[in-house]
Amino acid sequence: MDTLKQSSKIWVSEVLTNLDTMWDGIESTITKSGSASYLVPLQQFIFKFLVKCLVGADPSSSQEIAESGYAMLDRWLALQLLPTIYIGALQPLVEIFLHSWAYPFFLVSGDYKKIYEFVEKEGKEVLQRGETEFGLTRKESIHNLLFVLGFNAFGGFSVFLPSLVSTIASDTTGLQAKLRKEAREKGGSTLSFDSIKEMPLIQSVVYETLRLNPPVPIQYGRARKDFQLSSHDSVFDIKKGELLCGYQKLVMKDPKIFNEPESFKPDRFMNEKGLELLNYLYWSNGPQTGSPTVSNKQCAAKDYVVLTAALFVAYVFRRYDSITGDSSSITAVEKAK
């Protein structure tokens, strides 16, 4: 939380600056090739602004980190997540060969070491706070910061933002026109977290994307005490120490809460009735209306995620009249007139 608070001064400016770079590159590629994959440019954007905000360092101070830092984190993340990821292949081969053991760290130790050394050299201010204000050793500070940067922040945005781009770029219902109108007519001349709060449709689109495609669909926890867990029509006795699993995609498609739960409804979370549904939006390991604490383990940056994604959408429709694409590529952009 402390690192997020410290980064708040530059978060929006870094997002906007790096979005300029990302979309300049996509436009150039479309001009040359007719289409542009946005997955790598999107990850580069995510990596660069997060390093500036969370580490307080400029990736360009190291050519290797600037060019390949995002890929290093990808490989590190893949090794941790592979044992849990569904792969549509013949069973039980997947379980036997991919899901039955932890993978050895040495496979990505070289990448991790390079990022570790970069943070140690360039992130002196945030590491100093870890030592003086929280009693961590230098090594503990670096490892904790790398987990927040790589797993929580970079990993989460890398899963979520592509689904948001795909949803918008493949729209055929007229949603883009509505988003364009709101992005340009509301929030004043300068984008900020405050101006985003004046754009209810854009926020609703972000919430609806999180509902259908939560970045972390499965979460686990052990009961700290005996208690009863209630559903709409049942009560379950939970004993202290029992392992619980929450499958968010199932929870957030509850037909007793969400009308037409399988459908993408961009305005679902608008107006008073829609805002009440935020009590049941659990993408962040807790309700969207909740507040993260050290005891509830709700995503510390849940509000940053929503506002950053909304900022992303508002930026796109202040820059473009429309974008066209699919789950991996942008095929056309029409610049704002």
Automatic annotation (TrEMBL):
GO molecular function, one term: monooxygenase activity
Residues passing through the membrane, by range: 145-165
Cofactor(s) needed for function: heme
Binding locations of heme: 299
Any one Pfam family match given in the protein's UniProt record, by short name: p450
InterPro entries: Cyt_P450, Cyt_P450_E_grp-IV, Cyt_P450_sf
Keyword annotations from UniProtKB, A to Z: Heme, Iron, Membrane, Metal-binding, Transmembrane, Transmembrane helix
Biological process (GO), any one: sterol metabolic process
Gene3D superfamilies: Cytochrome P450
Family label: Belongs to the cytochrome P450 family.
PANTHER family: CYTOCHROME P450 26, INACTIVE LINOLENATE HYDROPEROXIDE LYASE-RELATED
Record's protein name: Cytochrome P450
Naturally occurring in which organism (per UniProt): Quercus lobata (Valley oak)
Lineage of the organism: Eukaryota, Viridiplantae, Streptophyta, Embryophyta, Tracheophyta
